[in-house]
């Protein structure tokens, strides 16, 4: 459910673009992101830093798109968000703060070296995803970019999370081995 909630503005952007074009879709994305943050606040919950960043970036870049009637700004929005996230993950390590560990360590125990590799992987992934967004935005038409934004972005994230899960699994204790008692072997 949280995934659907997080994708809410992107899905609405996609649908609005298909029916009304980039400028209406941009306005819808701004409104959806504002509504998303308002909903979290009205429920008395804490708005995640990433949601605040996304709100600021969509208002800034989406606003510039609407004000200047130039779709270039909205195409840069995902890249700016991804590069900020990647920079935060990698920059945090420079200050001995592992943001991935801070978020995930409550539910999983990994060696410190694994946490560092995981944080670097997330940082590099977001930097790559931002660069890929620009490549698609400047190489293909806007319709292709919008399709990539939803389906390509979501697909890449899913593949990355699955690869990460398989990689993390090698550090987890073997639950099957702990659950099965060793067979009794009679002594001669």
Secondary-structure topology with pairs:
Layout: H1 2-20, H2 22-42, H3 49-68, H4 72-94, H5 99-104, H6 112-139, H7 142-169, H8 175-179
Helix pairs in contact: 1-2, 1-7, 2-3, 3-4, 4-6, 6-7
Question: Would you write up a description of this structure?
Answer:
- By secondary structure, the protein is mostly helical.
- It has one domain.
- It is 80% helix and 0% strand.
- It has eight helices and no strands.
- It has helices at residues 2-20, 22-42, 49-68, 72-94, 99-104, 112-139, 142-169, 175-179.
- α1 (2-20) packs antiparallel against α2 (22-42) and α6 runs antiparallel to α7 (142-169).
- The chain is globular.
- The termini are far apart.
- The mean pLDDT is 90.
Short description:
The chain is mostly helical. The protein has one domain (2-172). The chain is 80% helix and 0% strand.
Q: Give the C-alpha Rg.
A: 21 Å
Return residue spans where pLDDT drops below 50 for at least 5 consecutive residues: none
| Mean pLDDT across all amino acids | 90
From N to C, what is the helix and strand string?
HHHHHHHH
Content of β-strand:
under 5%
List keywords for this structure.
188 residues; mainly alpha; 8 helices; globular
């Amino acid at each position: 459910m949280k995934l659907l909630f997080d994708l809410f503005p992107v899905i609405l952007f996609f649908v609005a673009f298909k029916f009304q074009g980039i400028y209406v879709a941009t306005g819808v994305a701004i409104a959806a992101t504002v509504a998303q943050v308002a909903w979290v606040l009205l429920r008395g919950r804490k708005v995640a830093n990433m949601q605040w960043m996304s709100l600021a970036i969509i208002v800034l870049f989406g606003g510039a798109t609407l004000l200047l009637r130039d779709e270039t700004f909205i195409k840069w929005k995902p890249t700016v968000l991804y590069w900020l996230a990647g920079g935060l993950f990698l920059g945090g390590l420079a200050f001995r703060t592992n943001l991935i560990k801070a978020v995930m360590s409550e539910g999983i125990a990994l060696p410190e070296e694994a946490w560092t590799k995981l944080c670097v992987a997330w940082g590099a992934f977001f930097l790559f995803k931002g660069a890929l967004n620009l490549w698609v935005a400047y190489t293909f038409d806007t319709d292709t970019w919008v399709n990539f934004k939803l389906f390509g972005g979501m697909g890449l994230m899913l593949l990355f999370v699955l690869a990460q899960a398989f990689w993390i699994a090698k550090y987890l204790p073997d639950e099957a081995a702990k659950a099965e008692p060793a067979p009794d072997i009679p002594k001669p």
